[in-house]
What we know:
alpha+beta; 3-stranded antiparallel sheet; single chain; Alpha-Beta Plaits
Amino acid sequence: MGKSRRQIQDGSADDIGVIDMRVCMKREDCIGCQFCTDVAPDVFRMNGESAECFGDVTESNMDAVTEAAEGCPVGAIEIE
């Protein structure tokens, strides 16, 4: 499970709005439907036939990341 690349240790937002949220993409479960890349393109991208996390979760995209996880048809995205 990966943390946002610039995770704030105390769990609060920093001056650019990056938050402490763990997002795990289980690539072996991903079916490549691209729902997550459509909903949150600044956090998820395609890498071959499956999606991957590449961007920071921020205050401005947190709702989209949550929507992507909740809408994943195979539950390949986990958020903590």
